[in-house]
Design goal:
By secondary structure, the protein is mainly alpha-helical. The protein has 2 domains: about 50 residues; about 30 residues, no CATH class. The chain is about 45% helix and about 5% strand. It is built from 2 helices and 2 strands. Strands 1-2 form a two-stranded antiparallel ribbon.
């Protein structure tokens, strides 16, 4: 038998689920829009509006003759005793 408190609880649960789904859909839509906005930008266009990125160029990497790890050219010592790079 449905009493008033049970009916009220049922309506409250349906409302909570309804608004929860609406919030989740809105959140997903915003995430999707942000991803689509990021996909269109590639290369220099991606960094064009960011401060301090206009002169960014890739660094040349060289393999360490001791351990084989790739490091930036002109890197400082990693701290190992036999590291061939100069200490800072």
């Amino acid at each position: 038998m449905l009493s008033f408190p049970k009916l009220l609880l049922l309506v409250a649960l349906v409302a909570i689920i309804w608004f929860g789904f609406r919030w989740f859909e809105r959140w997903e839509r915003e995430r999707r829009n942000q991803r689509q906005g990021m996909q269109g930008r590639v290369g220099r266009d991606r960094d064009a509006g960011m401060p301090g990125t206009s002169d960014r160029t890739p660094e040349e990497m060289t393999a360490c003759p001791i351990c084989g790890t790739y490091v930036a050219a002109g890197a400082r010592s990693c701290g190992r005793t036999n590291c061939p790079f100069p200490r800072s």
